[in-house]
Amino acid sequence: MKNPKYNKIPFIILLLIHSALLCYSFYKSKDKRQLFTLLMSNIGLAYLLEFFVLNLFKAYKYKPRILKNNYFDDILGAILSQAIFVPFTAVFSTVLKIGWFGNLLGGLYFALVEVLFLRLRIYKHYWWKTVYTLVLIPIYFTISDRWNVLLRKRNPVIRFISLFFMIMVTEANLLFLFAASRKIRFGLGRYHSWNEHFILVPSYAISLSFISTMSLLKQNNWISKLRVFLITIGLDLVFRKLTLVKEKSHIGNYFIIRFLTIILYGQYREWVYGIKKETEECEDVA
User: Fold this and answer.
1) Are residues 160 and 278 in the same domain?
2) Which of 152, 172, 200 is the last residue of a domain?
3) Domain that holds residue 17
4) How many Å apart are CA 213 and CA 156, to the nearest integer?
5) Closest CA to 169 of 38, 43, 54
6) 165 and 145 in one domain?
């Protein structure tokens, strides 16, 4: 019988491989801010798909055996896949301009990885099929290629969605860290299960990200940041009032984290739209 403690080895190997691909992509790229924006957009798109496929409809299960809690271990496996393995490779494919044939090879590569993981019993299908991966990965890579072109053309809709995705990915990852450290849990009623938590968390992250994006869209100044801060506190109070969230973090730590994230979101805004105010272009989206 395979020792479960070795489950993490294939994940670590893929982490090293795809991290090397990403490093090479940034090395080759002339516009690293745009590449980072593309990367975060790719991760955001993957997270949205994962919300439906994994969180809601339980298509498969990861078993990296890195975290003791099986639920968190499953989610961590999904994060490694949807925030690292697939998006890093998509960025690599886009930067090298591999094209449609390379995108098809990417689908074949991830389908083979999936088959290997199934045989190693570190990944399990419920209703998902490998053929879905074989078909969806080339489509995902093609979207990455097109997204990059539209970013270069400064398409207002794509830039708006990109900023939204950058904030959403950051919020989702922070919330996972808080939940894993038992600092926060979302749910319905008095007892909040982890299943409920990972269904409600995306709703919170999406709401907060949309509000932040709209607030920072036209201007990236302290008034905009203060507005995001106050709305965030208001949203948290609503979730608490409806008993949809339980938090154990110290109030001082909460304000520090919120302050730092809002500063970071302002930086995201500059990377997507540029340092100069671009009110006219933003109005196209608003």
Assistant:
1) yes
2) 152
3) 4-152
4) 13
5) 43
6) no
Tokens 């600092």, located at residue? 183
Q: Are residues 40 and 103 in the same domain?
A: yes
Q: Where are the beta strands (DSSP E) in the chain?
A: 60-62, 123-125, 184-186, 245-247
DSSP letter (8 states) at residue 65: -
Quick: pLDDT tens for 136-169. Answer: 999 999 999 999 999 999 999 999 999 999 999 9
User: Token pair for residue 234?
Assistant: 């208001």
Domain match, 146 and 160 both: no
Single out the residue of 201, 164, 188, 158 nearest to residue 71, CA to CA.
201
Among left, alpha and beta (phi > 0; psi -120 to 50; other), residue 99 is: left
184 three-class SS = strand
Contacts of 249 (CB under 8 A, 6+ apart): 178, 183, 184, 257
What is the spatial distance between Cα 127 and Cα 112, in angstroms, rounded to a whole number? 18
135 and 270, same domain (yes or no):
no
How many structural domains is the chain composed of?
Answer: 2
Are 105 and 119 in the same domain? yes
What are the pLDDT digits (tens) for 20-65? Answer: 999 999 999 999 999 999 999 999 999 999 999 998 899 999 999 9
Whether residues 131 and 196 share a domain: the answer is no
pTM over 0.85: yes
